[in-house]
Amino acid sequence: MASASNRGVIFQGAGKVTVETIDFPKLALGERRCDHGVILKILTTNICGSDQHMVRGRTTAPKGLVLGHEITGQVIECGRDVEFISVGDIVSVPFNIACGRCRNCKEGKTGICLNVNPSRPGAAYGYVDMGGWVGGQAEYVMVPYADFNLLKFPDREQAMEKITDLTLLSDIFPTGFHGCVTAGVGPGSIVYIAGAGPVGLAAAASARLLGAACVIVGDMIPERLRQAKSFGCEAIDLRQDATLGDMVAEITGTPEVDAFVDCVGFEAHGCGHDHSHEQPATVLNSAMDLTRAGGQIGIPGLYVTEDPGAADKAAQKGALSLRFGLGWAKSHSFHTGQCPVMRYNRALMQAILYGRVDIAKAVNVELITLDDAPRGYADFDGGAAKKFVIDPHGMVAA
Questions:
Q1: Is residue 3 predicted with pLDDT exceeding 60?
Q2: What is the pTM for the complete model shown?
Q3: 274 and 229 in one domain?
């Protein structure tokens, strides 16, 4: 097809993003044709907490990076080798880029594909150290290995009616669900979710979908805690000068939980009087304190190998001071890493389409324009209890 104009959200250095004209995508990987790819007209693309780590200057992300790894779009061009996706299809794009051919992909470990990032296993759109792929906070984007990667929605009209829910399938809903599954959440579980940002709220909604008896969410931002309460969760304000175990015991009668999900990651702060100071290992250590012997800890929260903004030299290299002996003594299991989105997204799509979960309501989606993206980043960084979803062509608003 003929090239058109394209604009995207660009990282310009710590604390600054702008909306600029960028290249229109091509079906190409460097100098090679990408006959297995498609070009999407983006319907929705979301601002993620992981993006905020880069925008705050807490990674080695280069200036000029086109941001965005949460993408839902309409196919406008297919490479000649694409067999099962067609022009006009509305699709969800897993944030993991996966070839479908390597050992890890064949084992369902699409978050650590071996062929899409020359530096290490695993790739994502618009993210530091994740293969150099152009991000999707834009009007158009190229998606490789389309037959393998894309989740096609079965009905266009139904998809557009549910688009603010379905847009969350690209990352945060499967990520929150993955955190709960790897923490062993099931019917009757008592679950603690660390963090009430969008992933934490998605995890809380996932825990309820999985049949948890009690879902407790801890955070320091009252607005986010009110959002967690709005769909049936218990909430703990971590600014209180009390132990986490004591605060949980006030709710459940015992200072422990069956399952713990860390949705905070490496920019964690201490609790109580220490809440203004970063303590990057505090959530993981709290997880071992609070989780019962034999319990499981899911860690979808992001931890990095390099954090130039960390307060101490060890943390700058991703080395944290963990009381790991406690976890060993309690026979805990820990599960880390990117969510393999394709493991869950089709089933979660069905849960949305059949009305089993109101995930957009749970995470409080707010639609914004592409030009409003800098404001969305600023509001999100300020602790807004919202999930900002960019509508770059105004198709959802229309």
A1: no
A2: 0.96
A3: yes
